[in-house]
Amino acid sequence: MRSLTRSEILLLTLCSLAVLGMGNLILHKQHKTKLKKVEGVLADLQLRRSNPNITQDASTPSEQAKVWEDRMAWLDASMPKMTNKDQEQAKLLEKLRESALDYGLDVDGQSFVKPGGSQYYKEVAVKINLDGPERKVFQWLSELQSSEKFLAIKFIKLDPALTSPTLECDCNIIVAQWFKP
User: Fold this and answer.
1) Per-residue pLDDT of the chain (181 residues; tens, 9 = 90+)
2) Which of 53, 74, 132, 176 is disulfide-compatible with 125, CB 3.0–4.6 A?
3) Domain range for residue 23?
4) What's the pTM value of the predicted model, to 2 decimals?
5) 1 in any annotated domain
């Protein structure tokens, strides 16, 4: 093996310095990006700390108790009462079916699901299979998400029809409604 000439050593040194320089530039850019994200989070946290309307996390147990008492009062005032489990389940199924039809979705199948619950709530649940344009399915799903309705999506499976030119979507969903115990 022969030794390197002076010009080869110079070129090897320049190439090594170029690689190291580029590596440092890339690391510096990543560091600055992470630093900007951290500064943004810190600014947001400082804003939350200084603005009493934004802060939701009470630091003392008495302040936390007040927050939970307010939430429990809202639940007592807002959560609907169940009159009859079967009637409520049928109402939920009909309401979901009608709202899906309002969005132009085709309801393929519908069925009742065994109701659940706990000591804090009673539940009725239904299963709906529907399909339609993907955009309409997502709009319908976003309409369901509301704390005032006491609806919970317990299961969802979306299957987009990739071969369809109109972006059709098949949706299997189990929705539950919660009531006072």
Assistant:
1) 889 899 999 999 999 999 999 999 999 999 999 999 999 888 888 877 776 665 555 567 777 888 888 888 888 888 998 888 889 999 999 999 999 999 999 998 899 998 887 888 889 999 999 988 888 888 898 888 777 888 988 999 988 876 666 778 888 999 999 998 8
2) 176
3) 6-76
4) 0.60
5) no
